[in-house]
Amino acid sequence: RAAMNRADAYLRQFSYQTSADQSEPAFRLDMEFQPQPVIEILKQAQQPVWSSNRPAVLACVEVQGSGGQVITANSGSAPVLLAEAKRRGVPLQLPASRADCNGAVSQELLLDGNLQLEGGRCEARWSMTLDQDDQRWSSSGNSLEACLGSAVDELAETLSATYAFAAVTGSTAGEPLFLSVTGIDDFSDYADVVLMLNSLAMVDAVDVAGVEDGAVDFSLTA
Fold first, then answer.
1. What is the pLDDT of residues 71-88, one digit of tens each?
2. Taking the model in full, what pTM does it have?
3. Which residues contact 12 (CB under 8 A, 6 or more apart)?
4. 93-105 residues labelled b (16+ CB within 10 A) or e (exposed)
């Protein structure tokens, strides 16, 4: 709450956007904040942080009554689903065809959906395997937007409950984590790894603990 009173100190840039939709205000203010200071505020307040390091989700959503078709990037309902995913910061991907769903074993996460539209009413069932646990939920609404919005809300809550982290306090706070990375053959490899580790929101500092035969041992302050 203290940081909210000086939010302008964390502002990176802002702009005004015009809208052609008569039902919306003529102008919209877009503000972009600096991510690292905001993350630091949350960590200092010991609030959980869902960092930008999020798994991609392939959504295979079958629409009942359409011959078993799935929502692809070219489907009429695709912009609605993608807009809801963007609203909650879920990196959602859509298949080019049903074949992509059948061969999605390489995807990090696969979201299965069964959508039924009738008289403007939407009912849907969803399932996803996360950390070897089956997650199942349903969503409904008097419009497609409401139905998909409810589904994405549940998806975001499920993902953040697994991937968010919180500041550690007590006896284990400040203890280093040790990580050994192999296959580092030149300075460019080393620099790439250090940049990647430093970009992780839960990492405060990266130190080298040892180097041997193409492997580097790192000490991380998390």
1. 998 888 899 999 999 999
2. 0.71
3. 32, 33, 34
4. bbbeeeebbeebe
